[in-house]
Amino acid sequence: MGYELIEIVAAAIMLIYLWLEYKASIWLWPVGVVIPLFYIYIYFVNKFYADMGINIYYLVASAYGWFRWWKSEAALKQKSLRSGETAVLGVAIRYTPKTYWPKLLAVFCVLFALIAWVLIRFTDSPVPLGDAFTTVLSIVAMWMLAQKYIEQWWFWLIVNAVSATLYFWKGMTPTAVTYVVYSIVPVFGYRQWQKMMTSAMTANRYSR
């Protein structure tokens, strides 16, 4: 399989992943396990070393997210069987607690400084600061997705917009175009999750 075909296939799988994320489907996680296998190679070829490294993190995070969502769904199903009510998947979607924001900011700053230093000092990355920025923000966003925090959509919007710019500059056209699409999806994804969260809260209120 040639490089361009690999990039196109990876982009297509990412679109499937986004659709599943939009629907808050647990199946986004197994797809999320497959995607890094493509992008580790793609980013290595283009010298985006931090992005390459984060895909190893994505493998682990996808396994964690899959387990966490599966455990949450299993608990909801057991509860519904006991109560006779229908389990609502969206019940787990929620806003990020206010007390978490200072911690997330601190994690972002520390990781950004560390990864940027490593890229500048030890690699030939053409855009070490941009690479570090998208990598660290992706780490935070992926963790938020696993927790089903709705604000993760805005983090992905920033990551995708910056990434699209970097990839166009690098000549990674199929990936860049895909990331332009990714930059639009979070707007609709946020609204969809908000509707699901509201519906779940309403259903949960009336089931008591």
From TrEMBL:
This is Nicotinamide riboside transporter PnuC. Required for nicotinamide riboside transport across the inner membrane. Pfam families: NMN_transporter. One of its GO terms (cellular component) is plasma membrane. One of its GO terms (molecular function) is nicotinamide riboside transmembrane transporter activity. It comes from Tannerella forsythia (Bacteroides forsythus). It is found in: Cell membrane. It is a multi-pass membrane protein. The chain crosses the membrane at residues 5-20, 26-45, 104-123, 129-146, 153-170, 176-193. Belongs to the nicotinamide ribonucleoside (NR) uptake permease (TC 4.B.1) family. Keywords: Cell membrane, Membrane, Transmembrane, Transmembrane helix, Transport. InterPro entries: NMN_transpt_PnuC.
